[in-house]
Design goal:
Shape: globular
Largest sheet: 4 strands, antiparallel
Strand order of the largest sheet: 1-2-4-3
Oligomer: single chain
Radius of gyration: 16 Å
Number of strands: 4
Length: 167
């Protein structure tokens, strides 16, 4: 629970690369996520090339952060293990995103979720820059790096939003 409460969106990063081993651990965490009928429709693109990161920052209105790495979270329905992935890829890939965000915190990394889907203009920009085929769905980007800022842990629990037995 401590990692969940400690996980915060980090928007300022140190000028320090993220080790490939740490990026691989994040991907393992992402692929450990639950998915509808265990369909696992996800694919990922890890971006560490400074020029490509600059291209992403230049076009993404909400993606201007100086992270040294980004992970694009995608759904490839042609490799999904179950037909249900056509209906649940957003939820499946979102679960992978959350696992990556929590794992980043556990590794001492900062991260921020940059939404793309369902904004077609944003997903198209990411597809163009990362050379993603048209039949692959872009859910989001996750920027990752060593944090240059610190945020306090929190739960954001509000009892007024909780209903027991009925609304």
């Amino acid at each position: 629970l401590d990692l969940i409460y400690k996980r915060r969106s980090i928007r300022a990063f140190q000028d320090r690369p993220v080790e490939k081993e740490n990026l691989t651990e994040l991907l393992k965490a992402g692929m450990a996520a639950p998915s509808a009928s265990n369909g696992q429709p996800w694919e990922f693109i890890v971006v560490t090339d400074p020029d490509r990161l600059t291209q992403l920052r230049e076009v993404l209105v909400h993606g201007k952060y100086n992270a040294p790495a980004a992970i694009a979270v995608l759904a490839n329905l042609s490799i999904a293990k179950k037909e249900s992935s056509t209906r649940f890829w957003v939820q499946d890939c979102s679960a992978a995103v959350e696992n990556i965000l929590i794992a980043a915190t556990g590794l001492g990394l900062g991260s921020v979720w940059i939404g793309a889907h369902p904004k077609e203009e944003v997903t198209k920009q990411i597809q163009d820059i990362l050379k993603i085929p048209a039949d692959i769905h872009v859910l989001s980007l996750i920027y990752v790096g060593y944090p240059a800022e610190e945020q306090p842990a929190r739960t954001q629990y509000e009892e007024i939003r909780v209903h027991w037995q009925k609304y």
